[in-house]
TrEMBL record:
InterPro entries: HAD-like_hydrolase, HAD-like_sf, HAD-SF_hydro_IA, HAD_sf. GO terms for molecular function: hydrolase activity. Its cofactor is Mg(2+). One of its GO terms (biological process) is small molecule metabolic process. It holds the Pfam family Hydrolase. Signal peptide: none annotated. It comes from the Bacteria. The keyword Hydrolase applies. The lineage of its organism: Bacteria, Bacillati, Actinomycetota, Actinomycetes, Pseudonocardiales. This is Putative hydrolase of the HAD superfamily. Transmembrane segments: none annotated. Keywords: Hydrolase, Magnesium.
Amino acid sequence: MTSAPNHSTTHAPGQLKAVCLDVDDTLLDTQRASRQGLRELVGTDRAWPVWERTTDHYYARFVNDELDFEAMCVERTKAFFAAFGEQIDDTEAARRESVRMAAMQSAWGLFDDARPCLDWLRDSGVRLAVITNAPSTYQRKKIAAVGLADVFDAVVISGEVGVAKPDPRIFRTACDALGLRPDEVAHVGDRLDTDARGAARAGLHGVWLDRSRSERGTVGDVPVITSLHELPELLVGDLPAIPAMPELIG
Ligand SMILES: [Mg+2]
């Protein structure tokens, strides 16, 4: 564990005034919970790669407004079982999904590094927000279930603002909610393009949380951390300067 550096309780690191974070697989160990749901559904998580692939496909259709969340869940479940040769109708898919969803929700939990990082940021005087691609009610329930309902100064959910990451408008919505310029705000997330590069294109400091440790240092101009324990040091140290992108900062 990287210990948080000493800090004043009233001085924010550098010029940075707020940090936005993604929720799923950034603060919450969503994959662990989702694997638990899959085990409840089929008795094992050996089919996790198929479930993950199917989820990526159907969740993208939800994010792109091609399916609402409930329809996405039903279609995903039908496609998952069809991949193993079992055809089920909408009613049976919805029933199985409710079983999986209940098991997954009971397993929702934060990564061990999430709370210490949020506490350090808060104690440093940095404001906090989340920016997440998800339906409103579902995601607010999830945030509350892990004890974070009162932690953030702004909660920006794609299902509420009508645009999703990596669209620059959702990042600017967060900056507006915080009353800050994009270059005063960092965004941290587990998806390189959706989170880190999307934020950078909107003029924020994009940071990629690569928990699988496939990369270290930087990818292009994007700083990479492998744990939220590394975030304080990065913010206090040497975040790269934001390049001028006036066409995106409107
Ligand atoms: Mg994520």
